[in-house]
Design goal:
Layout lengths: L1 E4 L6 E4 L4 E5 L5 E5 L2 H25 L2 H4 L36 H5 L1 E3 L5 E3 L9 H14 L1 H4 L23 H5 L2 H10 L13 H18 L15 H8 L53
Antiparallel strand pairs: 1-2, 2-3, 3-4, 5-6
Helix pairs in contact: 4-8, 7-8
């Protein structure tokens, strides 16, 4: 313990602790106040003070209830439950919001047939309005035209850059397929075509399928499909009027395309690419005649 007299105030300082000091006035009455430890203790006291503070911080952080925090760690066991599993099984007969999928045909495009196999249907799960067709046209032009082109003949821009020709949606095989087949292919992919389930929601896939059927009807229309009293103009005259006569000529498969098949004259029509055989081959069962239009 060190004692000294303050020359300025006449107060004696008694130091017994690095942080506390007791002051005594001339009349002997004690006065307690806090002194700065670094000024009182010097370098040695400074190190001692820092070590003491470090010990206090260390001790305050060594609480078992924080170290053994009650939480669930993935793929790790737990003593809290009887089965010793931290991951709890889902509650039976409950479905997350928006994942009920009660209408299986809407989400899969197939139904279970009498023979137990999946069966496609030529029907839409909801009414087809002009709004649905416009939505399908928009999605088709964004995701389908690079391969199938705007008219669906399979000669998109990437075919001219060496990609395999896409399916011609106007050939005999695709015209015979039910409308849910297009939904199923967009969901799962087929051949060289990847699936588009990530890009298109189920409702958008159905809208695109409906637009494909409308596109097929428009490209295969005849004079009998035109209402009475409506003037009929040939494609050649419209193309000449617009200044693009090449639009009325058959489109030829580019030489840069992979597996360029020879055209089938009996299946080609003006303003449409010559048809090609299906690759891989697709068989249409005789017991399932194709419907001419979607319901």
């Amino acid at each position: 313990m060190n004692l000294h007299r303050d020359q300025g105030s006449g107060i004696r300082v008694q130091v017994g602790c690095p942080a506390l000091a007791q002051f005594s006035r001339e009349d002997g009455k004690p006065v307690s106040r806090m002194l700065h430890p670094f000024r009182v203790c010097g370098k040695g006291g400074r190190s001692l003070f820092l070590a003491a503070m470090a010990c206090v911080l260390l001790i305050s952080g060594c609480r078992q209830d924080m170290h053994n925090e009650p939480k669930m760690i993935p793929q790790r066991g737990s003593d809290f439950f009887a089965d010793h599993r931290s991951a709890r099984p889902q509650v039976e007969n409950t479905v997350a919001r928006g994942q009920l999928h009660e209408d299986s045909y809407f989400y899969t495009g197939v139904v279970q047939g009498a023979n137990g196999y999946r069966e496609e249907r030529d029907m839409m799960p909801f009414p087809v309005t002009m709004t649905v067709l416009e939505r399908g046209q928009e999605r088709f032009n964004i995701y389908c035209t690079p391969c199938h082109s705007r008219v669906g003949n399979g000669l998109g821009e990437i075919v001219y850059r060496g990609y395999k020709p896409a399916a011609n949606l106007h050939d005999q095989v695709r015209m015979s397929q039910p409308i849910s087949h297009y939904f199923y292919v967009m969901t799962h992919g087929y051949g060289a075509m990847p699936d588009y389930s990530a890009q298109l929601t189920p409702s958008d896939r159905w809208a695109v399928a409906a637009y494909i059927r409308a596109l097929q009807l428009s490209q295969a229309a005849t004079t009998q499909d035109v209402p009475a009293g409506v003037q009929i103009r040939s494609l050649e005259s419209v193309a000449d009027e617009e200044g693009h006569p090449e639009y009325a000529r058959p489109w030829e498969l580019p030489a840069t395309a992979v597996q360029a098949y020879p055209p089938v004259a009996s299946e080609g029509t003006p303003a449409m690419a010559p048809a090609r055989p299906a690759d891989p081959a697709i068989k249409i069962p005789a017991s399932k005649p194709a419907a001419t239009a979607a319901h």
